[in-house]
Design brief:
The chain is an alpha+beta fold and 102 residues long. The chain contains 2 helices and 3 strands, in the order E-H-E-E-H.
């Protein structure tokens, strides 16, 4: 069966319990009905100037479910982070280069 790794990104305010956030996002992936059991789940964490970037990586049962799986991870992950009082980061928009026409 073909395998396809899916990702879901989360951006949190820098002041938080990163071990708890990582554990929570791992559990969200583990409880997804689209998860291919037996395949690895990874929660990758990267600090940025504006906050902490979390990327959940996991495999769906069927590659055709990739969008449902990524959506499930994103929606349930965000709900759970907010329910646990985590604050999302406000990632600044990139400014338009000087002299460019909008």
């Amino acid at each position: 069966s073909p395998q396809l790794q899916c990702t879901a990104d989360f951006y949190l305010h820098p002041s938080h319990d990163s071990a708890r956030a990582r554990e929570l996002l791992f559990d969200v992936a583990l409880t997804s009905p689209y998860l291919a059991l037996g395949e690895p789940i990874a929660v990758v964490v990267e600090e940025q100037p504006w906050g902490t970037h979390y990327r959940v990586r996991a495999y769906p049962i069927d590659a055709r479910q990739q969008f449902r799986f990524a959506t499930d991870l994103t929606v349930r992950g965000k709900v759970e982070l907010l329910r646990q009082s985590f604050t999302m980061a406000a990632v600044p928009a990139r400014p338009e280069p000087a002299g460019s026409a909008a």
